[in-house]
Amino acid sequence: MASQREIRRRIGAVRNIKQITRAMQFVAASKLKRAQDATLASRPYSDKIDEVLADLAAVLGGDEHPLLARREGGKRMVVLITTDRGLAGPLNTNTIRFAAKEITESSGDLAVVTIGRKGRDAMRRARVPLEAHFAGFGDRPSFADVIPLARLVTDAYLGGTFTQVDIIYSHFVSTLTQRPSRVSLLPVQPADDTAAGIPGNQFIFEPNPAAVLEQLLPRYVATRLFQAVLESRASEESSRMVAMKNATENAGDLIDDLTLSYNKVRQSNITREMIEIASGAQAR
Amino acid sequence: MPIMLEIVTPERLAYAGEVDAVVLPGIDGELGVLPHHAPLVSTLGVGELRYRVGGKEETFAIAGGFLQVRPDKVVVMAETADLAAEIDLEKAQEARREAERALETGFTEGADLSAARAALQQALLRIRVAERRHREGPRHRG
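ok -> C-alpha cells follow
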C-alpha cells in the first residue's frame, strides 16, 4: 500500500486538477451563452435572405446564375468545421468520424477545406487532399471573417473544378446534444416559395431580378457558412462545458476515494505503532 | 398608419419597430417608402437610411444591402448597419486613413482593390453620418 505522504500528494494534485476543470466549466458556460446569442441573432438575416431567394427563384427559374446551375462530373468540396482547441469532449471526434464516413463513401475526386486545427490535423493524417485551411475565427466569429472563405469556395465552384460543395459541421441541438451534420451549399437550392407570405411573382424587382440575384447569391453563400461557423462555436462551448463538468465530478469522486485510503493507511499505521509500543513494554 | 421597419445584419437585428416613413439609399438615388407601398425587392447602395417616427428622425449608416417591401413591412438586409448615435467618429476616421493608405500603396489583385475602395466608402459614410448628427443633434419635427 502507498505511503501516507504519497497519498496526500495525490490528493493535492487531483484537487488542483479539479480547480482547473471547474474554472474551465464556468468559462465555457459564459462563452456558450454568448455563442448561443450570436447564433440566434444571425437568424433573422439568414431567414430573410432565404425568403428573398425563394421569391427570386419563383420568377427566374432554375439556371439563371452559374451558382444555381447543376453540373455533372467534377470534384466535390467538403468544408469541414471543427475547433481549434481541444478538451471539448467527444465533439471533434464525432464530427471527424462523420466526415470520414462521408468522404470514404463519396465516389469520385474530393478535396477538403478545413476550419479549425483539429479537423486539419485529422485530414492531414488521413491524407485527404486539403484545398485550404482557415484558422483564427476566435471566440466571436464576425461576418467579415467568413467572407474570404466564401470567396474561395465560390471561386472554386465558378472556376469549374468543383461541382458540389458541402459543409460538415456540428449542429447545436441543445446543451446536451450536438449532432454532426452535412448541409449542401452549392449549387444553391432555393427554398420553396409557397412558404413565404407573398408569392415571388407579385414583387417588383429593382433594377431587375437578375441583378438582385447577382448581389444576393454571394451573400447567401457567406451567410450559410457563417451560420455553420456559429453553430459549431455554440456546440464547442456546450460540449466543453459538459466535459469539464464531468471531469470536475470525477475529480471529486477520486478525492473521496483517496481520502478513504489515506485514512485507512493512517489508521493501520497507528495500530501498528501501538502494537510495537505494547510489545516493547512487555519485552522489558 | 405606421409601417413596420426591420433592419437586419448577419450579426444582429439592428432595428425593429413601427415608423411613419423610411428613406433609403437606392442604387440610383434616394428611395422613399411610405405605408401601402407596392411589393418590392431592390438592391441598396452605401448610404444613409433615415426613418421618421412621431416627428423624430433617426439615421443609420448602411452598406451592402437589400430591401424587401411588403404593404405592411419594410425589411432591410444590410451587411453593416450602424445607428448614427453609436458611430465612433475617431474609429471611423482611423478606418478612413487606413483605407486611403491601402489605396495609395496600390494592389495587384482586383479583389483587394475593390475591398479597400468599399472600406473607404464606408468609412466616409460613417464620418458623414456621425458628423451631421454631431452638428444637429437628434432632429425633431412638428
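Strands of chain A lie at 75-81, 110-115, 130-134, 162-172, 178-186, 204-206.
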